[in-house]
Preprotein translocase subunit YajC
Amino acid sequence: MVEKIFGIASAVAEDAAAAATAAEGEAAQGSMVAALATTFLPLILIFVVFWFMLIRPQRKKDKQVKEMLNNLKAGDRICTIGGIYGTITGLKDDTVTLSVGKDNLSMVVARWAIRSVEEVSIENDAQELN
């Protein structure tokens, strides 16, 4: 009878040891996931900050420049990236013909070399643009 009681006690002890081992395995696995999350969380946060501070605004600016270059038309007063002001007299696929200076010299520049379209208001017809 004593052996029967000790047999039951040893079986219960073995079941408890197996359950403890399984719980330790799950806890170790949970701590590994937490360690990975704390390792990669700063990297993910840095990427998100770069996205909203650098990449997104640059894409928005590039879109505006592309739209401005596609909407060019003859008669627009522009400034090139070299600082030359002129009036567009002709447009082709990748080139723009400008009228520059008092003598209305003709100059051909690349379309991508245009920095901005100037807002010119002419108050009277006698005023010259160049």
The CA atoms of residues 68 and 117 lie 8 Å apart.
